[in-house]
């Protein structure tokens, strides 16, 4: 038998027979490692302990201490264990697929009766029995015909359809968890007992069309969450409970910010309070962009299909576009337009008007562009996932040599904005060349190095995501972490030589010849709608004073104080504070409770003592104490707090 050489993380090399499995490798190193091993990394790929290693390779053995591989396997195995539990309880249920997702997994089932909360408890109990049985997980490669007959005999039509979707020549791998089988690429754990029995929970059931196609059967999707230990599970459940309290849809109602309705799915009806947040944020971003050297433009919302065809969006993005057909006067056929799903092709049109010189570059072009994208109704989520939105979008036209400097400048710009908005934890992902791409290797080398150098020069670290770039260029993604530990991908910086080429953009270089500019797509917030949702949830509705739609409510304790209440409101308003009066014939405690639910930062209570002494009693949101200060002091304090961070 031929020998292969395996290189380990410490640099040591050992020879093994070709086809040796990671399980055998682990056993050759130490019995304790063989027992604790869950999977391996073979040449950087996640490898099942039972898969043979055919040739020389770099190898490392994973245990439950290796968080990434461990969570992937725990959640993947639990998907299989849950499907097995369901079929053991209800043998007539048909199974489909169960992928890993953030924090857990889901699995789709075809069952006539809806699952109930009581059913989830029963399924969990059965899953724990399977885990505690510590049954072996095994895998085999089958041929297509054998697999088809197996599923035909078991009456599993969804599995047969999945089988037909596997490309010819690709391995067909079968996995068993005990005596229950599933069609799966793997990898999986060595036995069911490696799943922590006290570190998972089934959370809820939802409807889901088979393969996301609304014309296909509606299935039942059971969701679960899982972690490496009980403490991590408890921490996540606590986070979910806190997230429910912070839900922007709930707070949006309580604060009177916006509403959605079925006549305009995925679009926002902004109320005065919500629109105040929106405009304050937009004004802040406009000032920051002007300081950053951007020119602001505005482009049409309805654009003829010819531009979308030229840009490539008609071919590659049409299913996400809203199409508008118009009977033009004297036209023999309808004119076909689309609501713009993004601003970039229109910005190239502005760049293309008139002759541009290398001296004009970099040209930083920004737009608060209203866009529309079709999102499936099941994907819509408050103002976080919508069909109509406005981007804080900009495109930088530059030379290849300017990419690094522009990337660094944007990272510094973004860092300042995030700090002003209360986000001090964020990270950078560098997505590099995918397998299918255009351009030379030299151009990819240059662009990727430029982005990496820019991040380092700006004083930040980055994580590489190999192969995650667009087909035309690498990108940076900026991921915020909110107050309860959730991650939100918001900012982007994308290198694009493709669109200028497709839309014939050019500038005159120092040599007097035409050259293609590089187009840098960049966004800081992403969309105003989604970012405002993130802000609301991050701050639990208690927005920074300068962003709060109702900054001060001046509430009367007795009606005789009404004239002074009106005077205080007027003085604050003239000083730039968003202030309003509450002179209703209600007790002051009732008013305080109501405005606290509405997340008003400051309530000024006015009684006859305050009238006589020209003072105000200050009650701050979240604080049960009150303090009495002079009216002049209140005006000075709150007018200063009402300024945006860049205006102080």
Characterization of this structure:
With 648 residues, the protein is of the alpha+beta class. The chain is 35% helix and 27% strand. The protein has 20 helices and 33 strands. The chain has an eight-stranded mixed sheet with strand order 16-20-21-28-25-24-22-23. A five-stranded mixed sheet has the order 2-1-5-3-4, with helices on both faces. α8 packs across α16. The radius of gyration is 30 Å and the shape is globular.
Short note summarizing the structure:
The chain is of the alpha+beta class.
* Average pLDDT figure: 94
Strand order of the largest sheet: 16-20-21-28-25-24-22-23
Over all CA atoms, what is the radius of gyration? Answer: 30 Å
Number of H- or I-type helical stretches:
20
The amount of helix comes to 25-40%
Span from first to last CA? 76 Å
Low-confidence stretches: none
Strand content: 25-35%
Category from helices, strands and their pairing: alpha+beta
Shape descriptor reads globular
The count of DSSP E runs of length 2 or more, i.e. the number of strands, is 33
The major β-sheet equals: 8 strands, mixed
Task: Provide key terms for this protein.
alpha+beta, 5-stranded mixed β-sheet, 33 strands
Question: What's the layout of helices and strands?
Answer:
Elements: E1 3-7, E2 13-17, H1 22-29, H2 31-36, E3 39-42, E4 45-47, E5 57-62, H3 67-89, E6 94-95, E7 100-101, E8 104-110, H4 117-132, E9 137-142, H5 144-154, H6 157-165, E10 172-177, E11 180-183, E12 200-209, E13 218-226, H7 230-246, H8 248-255, E14 258-259, E15 269-270, H9 272-291, E16 294-296, E17 302-304, H10 305-311, H11 313-316, E18 323-326, E19 335-339, H12 344-352, E20 363-372, E21 388-398, H13 403-420, E22 426-431, H14 441-457, E23 463-465, E24 475-481, E25 487-496, H15 498-502, E26 507-508, E27 514-515, E28 518-527, H16 528-538, E29 552-556, H17 562-574, E30 579-582, H18 588-597, E31 602-606, H19 608-613, E32 615-620, E33 626-630, H20 631-641
Helix pairs in contact: 3-4, 5-6, 8-16, 13-14
């Amino acid at each position: 038998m031929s020998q292969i050489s395996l290189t380990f993380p410490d640099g040591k090399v050992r020879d093994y027979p070709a086809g040796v499995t990671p399980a055998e490798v682990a056993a050759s190193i130490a019995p304790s490692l063989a027992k604790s091993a869950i999977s391996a990394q073979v040449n950087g790929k996640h490898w099942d302990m039972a898969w043979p290693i055919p040739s020389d390779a770099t190898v490392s053995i994973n245990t439950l201490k290796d968080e990434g591989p461990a969570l992937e396997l725990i959640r993947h195995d639990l998907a299989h264990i849950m499907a097995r539990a369901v079929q053991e309880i209800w043998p007539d249920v048909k199974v489909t697929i169960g992928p890993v997702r953030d924090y857990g997994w889901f699995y789709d089932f075809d069952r006539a009766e809806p699952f109930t909360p009581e059913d989830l408890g029963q399924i969990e109990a059965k899953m724990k029995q399977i885990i505690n049985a510590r049954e072996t997980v095994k895998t085999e490669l089958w041929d297509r015909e054998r697999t088809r007959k197996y599923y035909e005999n078991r009456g599993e039509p969804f599995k047969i359809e999945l089988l037909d979707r596997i490309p010819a020549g690709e391995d067909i791998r079968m996995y068993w968890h005990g005596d229950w089988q599933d069609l799966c690429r793997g990898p999986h754990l060595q036995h069911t007992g490696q799943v922590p029995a006290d570190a998972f929970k089934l959370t809820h059931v939802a409807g889901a069309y088979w393969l996301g196609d609304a014309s296909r059967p509606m299935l039942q999707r059971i969701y679960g969450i899982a972690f490496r230990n009980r403490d991590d599970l408890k921490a996540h459940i606590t986070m979910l409970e806190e997230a429910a309290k912070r839900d922007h849809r709930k707070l949006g109602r309580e604060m009177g910010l916006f509403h959605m309705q079925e006549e305009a799915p995925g679009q926002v009806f902004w109320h005065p309070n919500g629109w105040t947040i929106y405009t304050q944020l937009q004004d802040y971003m406009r000032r920051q962009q002007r300081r950053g050297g951007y020119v602001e433009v505005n482009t049409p919302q309805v654009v003829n299909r010819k531009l979308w065809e030229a840009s490539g969006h008609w071919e590659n993005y049409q299913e996400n576009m809203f199409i508008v057909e118009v009977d033009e006067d004297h036209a023999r056929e309808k004119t076909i337009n689309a609501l713009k799903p993004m601003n970039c092709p229109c910005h190239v049109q502005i760049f293309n008007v008139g002759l541009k010189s290398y001296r004009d570059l970099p040209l930083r072009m920004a737009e608060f562009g209203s866009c529309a994208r079709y999102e499936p109704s099941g994907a819509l989520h408050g103002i976080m996932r919508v069909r109509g939105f406005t981007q804080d979008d900009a495109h930088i036209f530059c030379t290849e040599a300017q990419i690094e400097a522009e990337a660094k400048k944007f990272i510094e710009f973004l860092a300042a904005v995030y700090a002003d908005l209360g986000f001090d934890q964020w990270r950078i992902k560098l997505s590099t060349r995918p397998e299918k791409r255009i351009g030379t290797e030299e151009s990819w080398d240059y662009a990727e190095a430029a982005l990496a150098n820019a991040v380092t020069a700006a004083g930040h670290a980055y994580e590489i995501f190999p192969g995650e770039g667009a087909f035309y260029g690498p990108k940076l993604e900026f991921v915020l972490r909110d107050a309860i530990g959730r991650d939100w991908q918001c900012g982007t910086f994308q290198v694009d030589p493709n669109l200028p080429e497709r839309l014939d953009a050019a500038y005159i270089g120092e040599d007097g010849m035409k050259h293609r500019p590089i187009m840098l797509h960049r966004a800081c917030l992403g969309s105003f709608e989604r970012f405002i949702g993130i802000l609301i949830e991050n701050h639990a509705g208690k927005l920074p004073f300068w962003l709060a739609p109702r900054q001060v409510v001046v509430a009367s304790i007795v009606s005789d104080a009404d004239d002074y209440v009106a005077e205080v409101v007027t003085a604050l308003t003239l000083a730039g504070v968003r202030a309003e009066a509450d002179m209703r014939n209600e007790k002051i405690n009732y008013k305080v409770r109501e405005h606290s639910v509405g997340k008003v930062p400051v309530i000024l209570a006015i009684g006859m003592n305050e009238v006589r002494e020209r003072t105000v009693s200050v009650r701050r949101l979240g604080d049960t104490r009150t303090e009495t200060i002079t009216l002049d002091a209140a005006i000075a304090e709150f007018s200063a707090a009402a300024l945006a961070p860049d205006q102080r």
